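Continued from yesterday's entry.
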Amino acid sequence: MSGGTSLTQAVGSMFTEYDRCTSLKLKLVDCFLAYILATGIFQFLYQLAVGSFPFNSFLAGFISTVATFILTVSLRIQVNPENKKQFDVTPERAFADYIFAQVILHLVVMNFIG
């Protein structure tokens, strides 16, 4: 039982530290990442349960979800104040790059759907 309690304590201290040290902006980005992850899992499970008859539609939606997740993780890394040494961009510039990449991504996805 001591292994279970130490795991519970470790997870509890991790969430306490996350809540104490993470800014509200990053928490919002993390919530969006959790939503994107849930959407991708739901799309995959739906495809397994129902099928993928319009396969281009499934692929476009799933690739869009995965690419949005990756772009959002990149945004989170660039906006995180602890990474200022690695990235010499302002948060506004990082967000503008993110929006530009999302527009290009969704143009490609809409073209792929047909």
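--- second protein ---
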Amino acid sequence: AVDYEQLRQLQSLFHEAGEADEVTRAKIHEEFMQQCRHVLQPCRLAKRRLSMSACGTEKASGMTSRLLPPINADGDSKKDGSHNVGHYIAQIHNTRCKGPYDLKTNERVKAMQQLVEKLPFERSIDNSKALYHHMAGIECLASQVSQELLERLSTVACSDKFPGRRYRVLASDAFCIILQGSVEATSTPASATDMNTKHKVPSLKKETTVLGPGKCFGSVNAKELALSTEFMSVVTREPCLFLKISTADFERVVEQLKVKKYEDKLHVLQSCRLGTQWPRQSLDITADLLTWRKAKPNEVLCSEGHLAPFIAFIKSGECCVLRQVPSYSNGLLENGQVHNVEMGRLSAGDFFGHMSLIKTCPMRYSVVAMSKVQLGVIPQEDVTKLDEVTHALLLYSGMGSQELSQEEVQKTYVTRQLEKEWQQFKHGVVTDVINSRGIVPGFGKWQHHSRHH
């Protein structure tokens, strides 16, 4: 609100400055800047001051009496007044959020209301992605399921409306998120299992918990997974809107995800050498034992001379196969020195570690990740669960780099070492010639001669 008494005083100061000398004008200017901050005041204080001024209880008499004490957002005087108009607007219009949830939850819930108004088959891909990101912000939901499962649940979530208060919602076969309104919840399990039961009930006499937007209730179960809360029955306090995931949809999504994971494992096994010729039984046994693992660049997956920690099938990325050989310098053997020779690279469709674990012998080579690698691995303790046929198929289908003899590895190393030394020798000769002739790149002798001419 504008304090017109202060505004009139500022006008009088403006007229006085026009007739004053330089010294007085500077003082009036300083006073003018100090009083500008008091023009905007909270409504009740501005009205009180205007009424007091109209009754003659507060009159301006001179330059010092024109100054009024600064007012903060709570209506109290303090020495340093605030220039932030937002402090007063927040109090006047009462815009601060005082609900049971913060502003982020409020915005998330409003966005979810608009998205669930459409049926699942009416939503676009962008709508489903937006709903997934909003559902990931609901802690009671995101903390119980994986991101992959949550993304699929967002495609089957639908809305459920209740038109008024005192409607009981039995949610023993559905998981619900409150998007609008509030409910009274009790932790006593409901005897009925029909979510769509909508009939009025008398007031609850038991102690209840009030749940608002962003809170969850209900429970859904699959064979190996459950999504639940402690509240199975709630009563609406006002018209409500829920996001609902039914047990049937939950079971179907979990089963679809399980099938997809199995197909991914099957694809990794069949992409290996001779994997398409494996019998179905061996593929099923191996796929059941397979788990996913990720490796960072330069991570050592297995070391030469040690038992392999797992049998690994590469799904994506690239690995380097290294063998250790004695180190040579100028054709002479260096005692105690070894050198890692790159014998090849592994990529998607290759696997390793099977020879070490099946035959219980140390690895004859090391494997190091060259980039980000995703692997399907069978841990060392699960290898014994594979039957003899699968063991034979793994040995027959495996790569042949470990079959290289020590002489062949040594020959490969010597050849590469000689090539390296030859390259270093050529580089050294060229560098010596350039330096001895005083040739600098961009400033050769031919350029110096052209300058003299």
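The first helix runs from residue 4 to 19. Residues 53-80, 94-103, 189-205, 448-453 have pLDDT under 50 and may be disordered. Will compare against the first tomorrow.
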